[in-house]
C-alpha cells in the first residue's frame, strides 16, 4: 500500500462515518456531534503494522481537519507514535511503516489545504530517498517475515 491508497481509504471511511452519523442525527435528532459519532473498529491479524499505521494516520488526518492543525509537527508525530506504542506493544515497529505514515500525513495535509503541494515536494523527495535506502538494506539482509 502506498500513501495515496491509505489517504483514499481514510477519506472513504470518514465519509462512511459522517453518512452514518447524519442518518442517526436524522432519526434521533441533533444531540451533539460526540454522541452520534461512533469509532471505527480497526483489526488485523496481529494488530500492529498495517492496523497501527492506519490508526496513526487516521489520528493525524482528523487533527488536520479540525482545529489542531497548528500543533502538527514531526515532534508531535513521534509523541503520538510513542503513545500508541505504550498502549499496543510492537505497533509501528518498522521504519517503512513510519515512512508510510509520514508520507500519508503529507498527502492528507495537501488534501485538506493545510499546506500546498509545492511546500511538501522537498519532504517527499527526502522520504523517497530514505525509502529507497530501506529497500537496498532489506535486499542485502534477505527476506523478512511480515506481520499484519
TrEMBL record:
Tyrosine specific protein phosphatases domain sequence ranges: 7-99
Name this polypeptide is given: Tyrosine specific protein phosphatases domain-containing protein
Pfam families: Y_phosphatase
SMART domains for the chain: PTPc_motif
Highest taxon, organism lineage: Eukaryota
Example GO molecular function: protein tyrosine phosphatase activity
Organism: Meloidogyne enterolobii (Root-knot nematode worm)
Amino acid at each position: 500500500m502506498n500513501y495515496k491508497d491509505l489517504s483514499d481509504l481514510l477519506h472513504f471511511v470518514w465519509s462512511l462515518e459522517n453518512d452514518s452519523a447524519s442518518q442517526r442525527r436524522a432519526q434521533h435528532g441533533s444531540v451533539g456531534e460526540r454522541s452520534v459519532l461512533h469509532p471505527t473498529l480497526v483489526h488485523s491479524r496481529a494488530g500492529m503494522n498495517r492496523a497501527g499505521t492506519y490508526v496513526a494516520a487516521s489520528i493525524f488526518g482528523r487533527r488536520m481537519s479540525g482545529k489542531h492543525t497548528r500543533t502538527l509537527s514531526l515532534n508531535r508525530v513521534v509523541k503520538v507514535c510513542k503513545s500508541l506504542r505504550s498502549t499496543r506493544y510492537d505497533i509501528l515497529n518498522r521504519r517503512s511503516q513510519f515512512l508510510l505514515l509520514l508520507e500519508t500525513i503529507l498527502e492528507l495535509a495537501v488534501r485538506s489545504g493545510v499546506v500546498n503541494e509545492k511546500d511538501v515536494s522537498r519532504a517527499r523527495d527526502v522520504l523517497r530517498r530514505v525509502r529507497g535506502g530501506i529497500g537496498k538494506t532489506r535486499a542485502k539482509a534477505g527476506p523478512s517475515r511480515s506481520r499484519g
